[in-house]
UniProtKB/TrEMBL annotation:
Transmembrane segments: none annotated. Gene3D superfamilies: Divalent-metal-dependent TIM barrel enzymes. Keywords: Cobalt, Lyase, Manganese. This is Inosose dehydratase. InterPro entries: IolE, IolE/MocC, IolE/XylAMocC-like, Xyl_isomerase-like_sf, Xyl_isomerase-like_TIM-brl. It comes from Candidatus Enterococcus moelleringii. Coiled coil: none annotated. It is an enzyme of class 4 (lyase). It catalyses: scyllo-inosose = 3D-3,5/4-trihydroxycyclohexane-1,2-dione + H2O. Pathway: Polyol metabolism; myo-inositol degradation into acetyl-CoA; acetyl-CoA from myo-inositol: step 2/7. Pfam families: AP_endonuc_2. Its cofactor is glutathione; Co(2+); Mn(2+). One of its GO terms (molecular function) is myo-inosose-2 dehydratase activity. Its EC number is 4.2.1.44.
Amino acid sequence: MTKNIQLAMAPIAWTNDDMPELGKENTFEQTISEMALSGFTGTEIGNKYPRDPKVLHRFLDIRGLKVASAWFSAFLTTKPFEETAKEFIEHRDFLHAMGAKVIVVAEQGHSIQGMMDQPVFDAKPSFTDEEWDKLTDGLEKLGDLAHEKNMEIVYHHHMGTGVQTTEEIDRLMASTDPKKVQLLFDTGHLVFSGEDPVAIYNKYQDRIKHIHFKDIREVVVGEVKSTKMSFLNAVKSGAFTVPGDGMIDFKPIWEAIDASGYEGWIVVEAEQDPAKANPFEYAVKARTYINEVTGL
């Protein structure tokens, strides 16, 4: 059995950063208390979390929680590098103070993931060669900045962005220095997009330094395609769910992870409408299923 894997829960199940109206009634303290109660030892950062490391440590330490990472929106393809770098350094220093080892980075230039009226499949952006150069050069520079604190950046391939498909992940990996740019492996986004998660994992296992476990409801994804739904409306309709509740068989995925000797965090991240999917119940469901599949 693989050692040194820790399980975290993302707060997006309780309160949604992109749609703050989802879960606005759920407090920060309820969120982290229910994470700990359901058997997780880590969290990512949500919009209700205190940004003062001393304050946040006080809330998390008493509940046995650590910070696994936090999302960073880069605009390397559309803004001057200096703007992204300035925000990145601030984000990096906060995560470093919280003891995190990796920084989740996703390019948001031309992204449609936050647009309610853009169909997530049909309106998906793609980068020009010049934009690819800006992205890969910029990511390597962010990787250098992360190394100043002995941290790594992990790139989050994501629905509705310019790095979503197998072909795009391949190009990103081939065009960046493996010492500077690592990969986040997200089961839900890969399956949603129509990619093969086990093939991606096996191909890039040496560069995968952070993992998101989320599941997909197959019927909802069919509706997303047929009705040309946006990413956010897909979330509201229940496209994502926790491991064990959707179409993904996590056994072969886990076998690949276990065989690779992966060390680090596996984060359950399943953004749903908490009014429809009680976050605590789903966290317990995820924790139970993960234990059954992985023994963790």
